[in-house]
Write a structure and sequence with these properties.
CATH architecture of the largest domain: 3-Layer(aba) Sandwich
Number of domains: 2
Helix content: 25-40%
Number of helices: 8
Strand order of the largest sheet: 6-7-8-3-9-10
Structural class: alpha/beta
Oligomer: single chain
CATH class of the largest domain: Alpha Beta
Bound molecules: adenosine-5'-triphosphate
Radius of gyration: 18 Å
Shape: globular
Number of strands: 12
């Protein structure tokens, strides 16, 4: 699904991604873990062809950068939920209209939706727990409600890859948990996309995630199986502070010792 070999990305004379090697196979679900400024967003935006690497080779969903058509064609197959990529819709649109518009990635927002698209949008609103406010204007929704609408929208085009870039930013504890419930429901669907979940909160690593990419200062610190990487020793070295790790309902919790 994703194959990065020796990737480097330069911004303003600085390598913000350097020697990144990373392979993602279909059916895997990954967490990208890193502190502020680690390069997580830059990496995700590169996968969606918003950035082009200065070095290395990159292949996403069978498309080789520099060889195959990218841009909108690739983005149609990727559901990207990121606060830094502005979507094309109006705040006065209802949650339902915004989800529905996710089915028109290439041909414009206000084409006539098919009955099948309407049914899919409604089902997604139900799955994401947004159905009861489907007809409310987007701008009247809380941050947590908005995020779940954006995830439903990203799923409209039946993406093979769903990228969630710090989706719990600005959400309170309960809104975070509801969003995580929604992510679990998505992963359990028969047509579930591969999920890349970006966070700096270790306690958001749900049981469904089996792989972790640890990014630090633009480089891969470690990548591989969650069970191997989530240890006090590895996390302490990664965060450069003594970490205590406990597990609650198969979810990790960390504290500074
Ligand atoms: N256009 C740019 N010009 C210069 N530096 C940039 C640019 N874009 C990103 N950077 C720098 O690259 C580094 C990685 O940024 P990035 O946004 O990918 O980090 P992040 O891991 O997503 O961080 P956060 O968790 O804070 O969102 C940061 O030091 C950032 O300042």
């Amino acid at each position: 699904m994703i194959n990065l070999e020796n990737i480097g990305l330069i911004r303003q004379g600085k390598w913000i991604l350097d020697q990144i090697n990373w392979q993602v196979k279909a059916g895997e679900h990954w967490v990208l873990l890193g502190l502020n400024g680690a390069g997580k967003t830059a990496l995700l935006h590169m996968l969606s062809a918003y950035h082009f690497p200065a070095q290395g080779s990159i292949e996403v969903l069978g498309r080789k950068f520099g060889k195959d058509p990218l841009g909108e064609e690739l983005r149609q197959e990727i559901g990207l939920v990121s606060q830094t990529i502005k979507s094309r819709f109006y705040d006065s649109d209802s949650a339902y209209q915004i989800v529905l518009s996710g089915g028109f990635a290439s041909i414009g927002l206000y084409e006539t939706p098919t009955d099948q698209m309407r049914a899919r949008a409604q089902q997604l609103l139900k799955d994401l727990g947004c159905f009861h406010y489907a007809n409310r204007a987007y701008y009247t929704l809380s941050q947590g409600e908005k995020q779940r609408v954006m995830i439903a929208r990203a799923l409209m085009g039946q993406p093979k890859l769903l990228i969630l870039d710090e989706p719990t930013n600005g959400l309170d504890f309960l809104a975070t948990e509801k969003l995580l419930d929604a992510v679990e429901r998505i992963a359990s669907r028969p047509d579930a996309p591969t999920i890349l979940y970006v966070t700096h909160h270790v306690n958001e690593i749900l049981p469904l995630f089996d792989k972790i990419l640890m990014l630090k200062e633009g480089k891969v610190y470690r990548s591989g199986n969650k069970d191997e990487l989530l240890s006090e020793q590895t996390l302490s070295a990664f965060f450069e502070t003594d970490i205590q790790l406990t597990w609650q309902n198969n979810r990790p919790q960390i504290w500074r010792k």
